[in-house]
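Support reply, case 0932

Customer input (verbatim):
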Amino acid sequence: MKNKKLILSIILFMVSFFPGHLQAQTVVRSRPEQHRPLIHFSPKANWINDPNGMVYHNGIYHLFFQYHPYSTVWGPMHWGHATSRDMIKWKEEPIAIYPDSIGTIFSGSAVLDKNNTSGFGEKGQAPLVAIFTHHDAEGEKAGRNDFQTQSLAYSNDNGKTWTKYEGNPVLKNPGIKDFRDPKVMWYEPQKKWIMTLATKDIITFYSSPDLKNWSKESEFGESRGAHGGVWECPDLIAFDDNGKSRWVLIVNLNPGGPNGGSGTQYFIGDFDGKTFSSPQQKTMWLDYGPDNYAGVTWSNTGSRKILLGWMSNWLYANLVPTVKWRSALTIPRELKLRKVGDELLVVSEPVSELSGIKGKPVMMQNMALAATGRNIMVPGIPSIPCAIKISMDAIKDFSLVLSNDLKEEVRIGYDRSRNEYFIDRTRSGKVDFQKDFAAKHYAPRFSKDQKMKMTLVIDVSSVELFADDGATVMTAIFFPNQPFDKLRLQSTEKAMIKQLEYSALKK
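Our regenerated output:
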């Protein structure tokens, strides 16, 4: 009894002597971080950029990512690591690969070496092999042009721990300043590995029988596509097109994106194990918004092609107004080839696994809009995060507006005079941290159909727009001073929303 009284006396003394400190601690623990996404992956703390090394194995999706564990701005790169069974609910794991005497750990890929061509496997088990860029910062400072090389690490415990290959680097730099981001795949017809590598502002293809010894095969990209900046984070993937392989080369570009800064373009063509060729002359973009970059696909997912991107832009990535962490990743997107009008496009939509966190949908039908706009008064709308689907039987000018009591807002919609979709964040809250952030961004409409469909995935600080079954895609981040809790539809002309489906999203 005396001990209990003594403990109680100590607690009462601490509360009376340090009341402000204890109360402050309680408030911090009970209040969620401002702008922290709730359904998108972000690290618990510090800096993240490119997703890399994404591989599916034994029922687990492995996500590795560019990570600076000691700061909220870009710095010496490590490979962070997270795992998931559905690509929606993530568990952050210990850092996978650390810098060493060769350099820091830039982007790359990971594969399941099912035939153990590398010889890294043990006890008859196929190893996971990571292929990444070693970046020698001291060599860069010294003015050399060979400071980026390609190296290997391997895991025999399903990605939990990684051992660097003692023969690193496996591909030395021939004297190209930007020589990075290897994306590796197995090319079954010729029983060899293909590396797709960003080399300045073109792509160079290499091949190897064992992931250790590489030979140059060909180059692609000179005078093709957008060249406003350095090419980065490429990906070569094959789609089945009525029994024939149709190849797509994804190339990230910075700067020179469709709405300024970073962007992701693609080329549709053919690949024969040595050379990629494409008749495409028009520059095509996977995402026309400002905030989807460095997107690549998971390996070992069979016929599914699932892409994940970094949800930011190098124009302002180091400046966005978050405190404990900086940046998040997009919702995983399944890519498909689809004929839209006269064009063959790579379309993308949220993975079906997203439905696993959807609440009971609220349906609204036949909503007439006038030029004055109309507020949607439904209990629980908009609880964010959420998914919203909108369909219209006639193409009309309209806006969906997220707002709050501070009169901050994000507008998402379609401009009929331009035949373009848009996201307008000019009045979205905190916008003055960088001169280009407050802007209205546009994207072309490819569909010739007079009916329109739009899906929105909205989180605390982002919106992803998928229009016309993924033919037009846009991603944008925003930072309101107060959470958005109002939703209305507006139009500059008489318009009819055939159906609006709203679903809350909760992990």
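We compared this against your earlier run and they match. Two observations from our side: The two ends are 45 Å apart (CA to CA). The first helix runs from residue 2 to 17. Please reopen the case if you see a mismatch on your end.
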